[in-house]
Design goal:
The structure is a single chain. With about 200 residues, the protein is an alpha/beta fold. The protein is about 40% helix and about 15% strand. A 5-stranded mixed sheet has the order 1-2-3-4-5.
Length: about 200
């Protein structure tokens, strides 16, 4: 294994992009994924697959689990891996792990993600994954499914929730959450479009 490969594995560990901890309200263990910390331009798909194979999958083979995926602040140019990469990672998941996956809580999906998954989700992801998907537009709604004190949610996720309370049109892609657009004049065309990638 090359030093670059090892360093990338260590970076994934340090950022805690993937973490198994806590339970949902049905007693299933939680596999949390932080999309914002996924440095797609730095960490390759091969490194991610190797990390999951060594550190995560052995734990998930043992019992039913649910995924909490935090999509908050995912941007195409920075931390979105792309559709083919997602499919490659999904295809690398062992059958035992897929069989144990019972729910995916997708936090802060946004309009583009919903449209994309509604259009292509059933074709991209086999094994009934699309039917296990639950969109969670606010963190408060996550607590209907997950035990609040057993999962760590980063501050920036709560901050995004606050933005959504004051600017609800962000949920529908009619107002951008991009910092350069926020505060633009009311008649600015930039205000009308979301710049989030599949968000």
């Amino acid at each position: 294994m090359s030093s670059e490969f090892t360093e990338a594995m260590e970076l994934i560990q340090k950022l805690r992009i993937f973490q198994i901890r806590g339970r949902d309200k049905r007693g299933r263990q939680i596999f949390r994924i932080i999309g914002k910390f996924f440095l797609a331009r730095i960490v390759s798909v091969d490194v991610v697959k190797k990390y999951l194979e060594e550190k995560i999958f052995p734990e998930l083979e043992k019992q039913p689990f649910a995924v909490v995926y935090l999509h908050t602040d995912v941007e195409k140019s920075q931390n979105f891996v792309g559709i083919s990469a997602l499919r490659s990672i999904y295809d690398a998941i062992p059958a035992k792990v897929r069989d144990n996956l019972e729910a995916v809580y997708f936090v802060h999906p946004g309009l583009q993600a919903r449209l994309f998954l509604a259009t292509f989700g059933r074709f991209l992801f086999s094994g009934g994954l699309y039917g296990k998907l639950r969109y969670i537009s606010r963190v408060d709604y996550l607590w209907d499914h997950v035990r609040r004190n057993e999962i760590e949610i980063p501050d920036f996720v709560y901050d995004h929730d606050e933005d959504l309370e004051y600017r609800p049109m962000m949920d529908y892609g009619l107002e951008s959450d991009h910092p350069r657009v926020y505060g633009a004049p009311a008649d600015s065309p930039a205000e009308m479009y979301s710049t989030r990638c599949i968000s």
